[in-house]
Amino acid sequence: MSKIIKHIKPILIAPSDLQFGMLRMWQAYSDETNWESNIVRTYDEAISLIKDNQ
How far apart are CA 11 and CA 43, in angstroms? Predict the structure, then answer.
């Protein structure tokens, strides 16, 4: 899928420790796809990342 969708940078919001840990494992696994992803704890952090990358 990374060959079809280029320049995608998903921001995943994981407020709990379990969600955060599961998404970090997914992120490690998805490294093979060459996708860049960000995992944050709050909506505000996600918005900040979006603003910083514009």
Answer: 10
Looking up tokens 């919001």 gives 13
Per-residue pLDDT tens for 14-34? 999 999 999 999 988 887 877
Answer yes or no: pTM beyond 0.70: yes
Write down the domain spans for the chain.
11-52
User: Is the Cβ–Cβ distance between 37 and 9 less than 8 Å?
Assistant: yes
Q: Kindly give, in sequence order, each residue whose CB lies less than 8 Å from that of residue 14, ignoring residues fewer than 6 positions away.
A: 20, 22, 23, 39, 40, 41
What is the Cα 14 distance to its own chain's centre? 10
